[in-house]
Amino acid sequence: MTPAIDELIGTLHGDTLRGCWPEGRRSVDAGYRDIEVPFDRLAAPAFALETRWNLAQLIGYLRTWSAVASIVSYTPATPSMHCLRNYRAVGARPKPLARSAGRCT
Fold first, then answer.
1. Cα–Cα distance between 24 and 1 in angstroms, integer?
2. Cα–Cα 20 to 30 A to 46, which of 36, 73, 97, 99?
3. Over 60: is that where the pLDDT of 52 sits?
4. Are 80 and 20 in contact (CB under 8 A)?
5. Widest Cα–Cα separation across the chain
6. Domain count, the chain
7. Are 55 and 102 in contact (CB under 8 A)?
8. What is the pTM of this model?
C-alpha cells in the first residue's frame, strides 16, 4: 500500500467510521488481547496474508466492513471512499493478523 492510501484507510477506519463499528470490533482491534481465556496463551508465530489489489478490489473489500455498511445506511457514501477513487492501483503490503492461541490443560 502506498503511504497516502494507508493514511486514507486509517482515517476511514479510525475517524470517519468512529462510532459505527459494532461493539465486538474493539477485541479485533486489540488483537483479542482484551479477552480473558481459561487457559494459558501460547506464543503464535507471526504470519501475514499477501495480495495485490487494484482499486476496485480494495474498495470492494472496504465495503465489506460492517461500519461502512452502517454509515452507508444513513449517508450515501463516505468522503474517504471517494478519495480512494483518485488512485489507479493499489499494492497491499502484508500486515499482521490478529490471532490468539492457547492450550486447554
1. 27
2. 36
3. yes
4. no
5. 53
6. 1
7. no
8. 0.62
DSSP codes joined into one string, 40-61: EE-PPPP-----EEEHHHHHHH
Contact 34, 27 (CB under 8 A): yes
Q: Is-contact 2 87, C-beta < 8 A? A: yes
How long a stretch of residues is the chain? 105
21 or 94, which is more confident?
21
Q: How far is CA 97 from the centre of its chain?
A: 10
Q: Note whether 5 and 73 are within 8 A (CB).
A: no
pLDDT of residue 20 exceeding 70, the answer is yes
Sequence letter at residue 18 = R
CA separation for the pair 101, 20 (Å, rounded): 29
CB neighbour burial string for 66-103, b if at least 16 within 10 angstroms, e if fewer: ebbeebeeeeeebebbeebeeeeebebeeeeeeeeeee
What is the C-alpha to C-alpha distance for residues 90 and 73, in angstroms, rounded to an integer? Answer: 27
